[in-house]
Design goal:
single chain, alpha+beta, Phosphorylase Kinase, domain 1, D-amino Acid Aminotransferase, Chain A, domain 1, five-stranded antiparallel sheet, 9 helices
């Protein structure tokens, strides 16, 4: 997209919604949720979060997230999910499910800058992370022998998630052993699928997180989103070896760009959130759009203008 189009959209981004006709509202870090008679409307706003804090908005981010999640749900439809339809580029209509209080995080590389990342703990001398023993001598961004599961608790809005071991999840009785085993199996299957498709597109799926819920039928299904730049790290495969050997940062295609920008300025979740300059917001938008186009192989069809007005028009038609 032209920079001028991204710049024009800076003043039209969707920060939050207020649609009482959709039912009870809950605001997550990025999505506004509305529930009504067994249905859940997930509206992907343009908010961007990092270190468990909302930072501001990015042009077209909500549309990218929603449409990329739609793409991945379709690619992984053999694994049950909550999607019913997509009535607007920023909206998913889903089955109302009871979410499990645990995120299933799968990692293939040791990396990251947040306090929940494996590398954050490893460089401080810790050699066990979420129940997994890590060998001496690992370097930042090094590939692990096999993918590992590092669950995370789901904090209340404004709180901080906590990385824990699988054993700790069961000790706290956050989920039953049977449900945890089912979610683990589904998470590894989704990750393998994501790695395979990303590789075909010249990307490395570094790590990701999945959320699960119980549908009214009783089955466990994937909810929220999968394999978007918000929930996943992507690196360019062709440049990985050279950059790793040189000890340089990987070329990223995810929101790690924004995390790194904040960390360089001393912000890792505490204190006042630094204001994102327009140039950072525009560059982040470029990367989100590039992620969509690279992963799907399709050109991103941006919907400029008032996002809130377009969504309300579309959803009132659905309700009519």
């Amino acid at each position: 997209m032209r920079d001028s189009a991204l710049r024009e959209q800076l003043s039209q981004t969707l920060l939050r919604t207020d649609f009482p006709f959709l039912g009870k509202r809950y605001e997550g870090k990025v999505r506004d949720n509305y529930t009504l008679r067994g249905k859940r409307y997930l509206i992907a706003t343009d908010r961007i979060s990092a270190f468990d804090r909302v930072l501001g908005t990015i042009p077209f981010k909500g549309q990218v997230l929603n449409q990329l999640a739609q793409f991945w749900f379709e690619q992984s439809r053999k694994i049950p999910n909550h999607v019913v339809s997509v009535p607007d580029p920023n909206v998913m209509l889903c089955r109302e499910c009871a979410p499990f209080p645990v995120e299933m995080v799968v990692r293939q590389y040791i990396t990251g800058v947040t306090a929940t990342s494996a590398w954050f703990h490893y460089q401080r001398g810790e050699r066990e992370f979420c129940g997994h023993k890590l060998p001496e001598g690992l370097k930042k961004d090094q590939k692990l022998h096999e993918p590992i599961l590092t669950p995370s608790t789901k904090a209340e809005h404004g709180g901080h998630d906590e990385s824990v071991s699988s054993a700790e999840v069961l000790r706290r009785k956050l989920v039953s052993p049977e449900d945890f085993a089912a979610m683990s199996e589904m998470a590894f299957k989704l990750f393998a699928l994501g790695q395979k498709l990303a590789a075909k597109r010249g990307l490395i799926l570094v790590d990701t997180k999945y959320e699960f819920g119980r549908a009214p039928s009783g089955e466990i299904v994937v909810i929220d989103e999968i394999h978007t730049p918000d929930s996943s790290r992507y690196w360019y495969a062709a440049e990985y070896d050279a950059l790793f050997s040189a000890g340089e940062e990987q070329k990223k295609l995810d929101k790690e760009y924004v995390r790194s920008w904040l960390a360089e300025r001393g912000f890792v979740g505490e204190g006042a959130v630094p204001a994102l300059p327009d140039e950072v917001r525009i560059e982040a938008a470029r990367r989100y759009i590039a992620a969509y186009e690279t992963l799907t192989g399709q050109q991103f069809q941006a919907q400029p203008g008032s996002v809130a007005q377009r969504i309300e028009t579309a959803l009132r038609k659905v309700k009519a």
